[in-house]
Amino acid sequence: MKLWGGRFTKEINELVNHFNASLPFDCRFYAQDIRGSIAHVTMLAKSGILTNDERDQIISGLTGILSDINSGTLKFDDGSEDIHSFVEAHLIERIGEAGKKLHTGRSRNDQVALDMKLYTRDEIDETDGLLKTLLEELLTIMKANLDTFMPGFTHLQKAQPITLAHHFGAYFEMFRRDRSRLADIRRRMNTCPLGAGALAGTTYPLDREYTASLLEFDCATVNSMDSVSDRDYLIEYLDALSIIMMHLSRFCEEIITWNTNEYQFVEIDDSYSTGSSIMPQKKNPDIAELIRGKTGRVYGALVSLLTTMKGLPLAYNKDMQEDKEMAFDAFDTVKGCIGLFTGMIASMTFRKDRMEASAKNGFTNATDAADYLVNHGVAFRDAHGIVGQLVLLCIDKNCSLDELSLDAYRSISPVFDEDIYDAISMKTCVEKRLTKGAPSRTSMEAQIAFCEKYLLEN
Ligand code: ARG
């Protein structure tokens, strides 16, 4: 049954019907659609547009539809054009005349704008919860690894020693910002479009602020044209999801590298790995790779919607129906990735011995050797040159700076003394970095206290 058959004399072409229909994907927000309709009729009765009896009949019909969909007894297989038509048709079938009044003072344009907002708002909350669980896991790993020394990299070349706690702390900050982006979007989007009508409001005395409060919005939207044509919040959310994926993808890239035979910094648990059909020795980091790979499709959803929206004149255009499928795919993808990623790092083994050995063997303490000389009165540029020669010597002898004899040190600069070994130990190199945000235990304890407080309050 079509909602708009009156002015038509011919049946719709079957291909057109199929091409136009959105029920196969907008059935996803049936619960939001029904919730919106219940708020709408509650407001219509309060404003004297429907009687209380009509309201009650409609609400009980809608509640029945909701529970039948939930239980699986009512299926989306009747060929309805969209979820709005589906619910209205079933309501009329169930309760008769009163059902025909549901759509009073409403258009599918403000209805779909509402449904998509309600659905997205629920999604934001769910994604935020998953990110919080991820942050809790990161914090657990940070707390257990304040003394797990490892090389910090720049250009993927070993740079200076850090700790695993410090490295994971960097990702804590990224995902903390992601959560704050979600909160910003939620705050900005939380206005109710229902009552905007097709584009120009309605002639009924709707109490839009009341509807807004029933649906837990901060207020009703300001302009009815904007209300039905705004998908900014969805673009913002897809942008935030893209950034979350970018963070996960960078993290996955590191874990894939750390899990290689060459690094062996971590071992991904068997339960999060896969094997090869031909090579018996293989244990592949497929989950990390898939998360990295799926980043592309989430970016795709963002670019797709931006492109769909860029040429649209005001107000509603059917192009906007294209906001759904890729957005839903992105929502599902990101939630799945956050959950899997959290499980993967929670079950991963950290090879502390390998990390520390790698930090030692890569001259990550060379800056500290130069600082030693500076503290003994040598100018930094000269100190840099002296340590550079020491590194060359080490490469020649195939040893680390710690393994070089004092005589070898003195052969390049007489300033060196026995205390150089303590000055360039991994522990000293890290512990002397006391500035806010640096890897020393003292700085990291402050960072962890901050993270703990944040998780308690957010
Ligand atoms: N399925 C439509 C969408 O997703 C619902 C709104 C349809 N409005 C209309 N006037 N055809 O955007």
UniProtKB/TrEMBL annotation:
User: Which reaction equations make up its catalytic activity?
Assistant: 2-(N(omega)-L-arginino)succinate = fumarate + L-arginine
UniProt GO cellular component terms: cytosol
Which cellular compartments is it found in? Cytoplasm
Q: What is its main location?
A: cytoplasm
Top-level taxon of origin = Bacteria
Family matches, as NCBIfam families:
argH (TIGR00838)
- Name of this protein: Argininosuccinate lyase
Source organism: Anthropogastromicrobium aceti
Give the gene symbol. Answer: argH
